[in-house]
Amino acid sequence: MLPHPTLDKLQTLRLHGMLKALNEQLKTPDIDSLSFEERLGLLVDRELTERDDKRLSSRLRQARLKHNACLEDIDYRSPRGLDKALILQLSGGQWLRDGLNLIIGGPTGVGKTWLACALAHQACR
C-alpha cells in the first residue's frame, strides 16, 4: 500500500511518471526551495517523458527492426555514395506522409538494411 494518498491516486490514474517523480521529490530534503509551479512542472515533464519513451519503445518493438540503427551514426566519409542532403530530406519523413515507397539499392554489404532500419527508427520517433 502506498503511504501517501496522492501517490495512491496517481497510481489509480495511471500517471506513473508523475508517481515516480513525486516519490523522488518526497525523498529530496531541499525540494521545498522550489515553488509549487516549479515542482508541478517537474511532475508534468516527467509524465510526458515517460509517455513519450513508452510510445517509442512500443513502436520500435512492433517494428521488429533487424538493427538498432540511427541516422546520427551514419559515416558519410566512407565511399558508399551516400548523399547527406538526401538522407536529411528522407529523415524528415514527408515521403511517408505522402504514402510513397523507398527503394534502397546497392551492392552486397554496403549497409542497405542498416540504412532502412535507421530510417524506420527515425520514423518511429
General description of the model:
By secondary structure, the chain is mainly α. It folds into two domains: 5-63, no CATH class; 71-124, no CATH class. It is 58% helix and 0% strand. The chain contains six helices and no strands. It has helices spanning 5-12, 16-27, 36-63, 84-91, 94-97, 112-124. It is elongated and about 60 Å long. The two termini are 36 Å apart. The mean pLDDT is 90.
**Oligomer designation:** single chain
By DSSP, the count of extended strands is 0
> Unreliable segments (pLDDT under 50, ≥5 consecutive)?
none
Mean pLDDT: 90
What is the straight-line distance between the termini? 36 Å
Structural class: mainly alpha
Shape: elongated
Number of helices: 6
What tags apply to this protein structure?
P-loop_NTPase; ATP binding
Concise summary:
The protein has 125 residues and is an all-alpha fold. It is 58% helix and 0% strand.
SSE inventory with pairings:
Blueprint: H1 5-12, H2 16-27, H3 36-63, H4 84-91, H5 94-97, H6 112-124
Domain IstB-like ATP-binding: 9-125
InterPro entries: IstB_ATP-bd (IPR002611), P-loop_NTPase (IPR027417)
Organism: Pseudomonas helleri
